[in-house]
Design brief:
Layout lengths: L2 H8 L12 E5 L3 H14 L2 E5 L2 H10 L4 E5 L1 E2 L2 E2 H9 L7 E6 L4 H8 L3 E4 L5 H9 L23 H15 L5 H17 L3 H16 L4 H19 L2
Parallel strand pairs: 1-2, 1-3, 3-6, 6-7
Antiparallel strand pairs: 4-5
Helix pairs in contact: 2-7, 7-8, 7-10, 8-9, 9-10
GO biological process, one term: phosphorelay signal transduction system
Pfam families: Response_reg
Keywords: Phosphoprotein
Length: about 240
Amino acid sequence: MDSLDTFMQARPPTAARPLLGLTVLVVEDSRFASDAMRLLCLRSGARIRRADSLFHAHRHLAAYRPSVVIVDIGLPDGSGVDLIRNLAGAHNRVEAILGTSGDPDGELLAHKAGADGFLAKPLTSIGYFQSKILSLLPEDRQPKGLRVLSDEVVVPDQVALRDDLAAAAMVLADAEDRRSMRYLTQFLSGLARCTEDRPLAQEVAKLEDLYSKGLDVDRQVARLTDLVQDRIAETAVL
């Protein structure tokens, strides 16, 4: 930790930066969703660390103890529910554990596993983010005095979105790997919700339906591949 980082984390929370002093570990595979979290933490005063899988999350947790852990339900090497359950049952428990997902069923799964709270995607509101975190912290972690609830929103980097789409295109190029494709449909479904991309969400849903019925998916994979490539081209000109 450099001297500026040390200085900022040692300061008590303020009305403008109510999460000063907190280290937030975000376990999230999407770079686009992670960038939104980065901006929310930055505007709130929190220090952020990111893990893109269960494997890397456990490496972080072995090295330090974060104040808050935010866990995406769908991860490339397993379910975030398992990590939430492990964190909730730990002897030296972190102060706040939150699940996050664009799936409506994610909140129930997170709470059943022992999460203290849940953040629904897309997550862009600074005021909502700060209020959810603060509601789970002890009084000595709260800023003193009145706090104005911010109505600002963050806008994640389109480069991060393009990176997510490019990663999805690579998986689509090897559609024979069923395990990877199951993960991909989950990943793209969440990305579509975060970007409010209804056409993408509809094409992913069609692919999921074909898989569930055991039908041929080649034509739908081709349609989805074309759509993802179109989205990559759109972000390249921004």
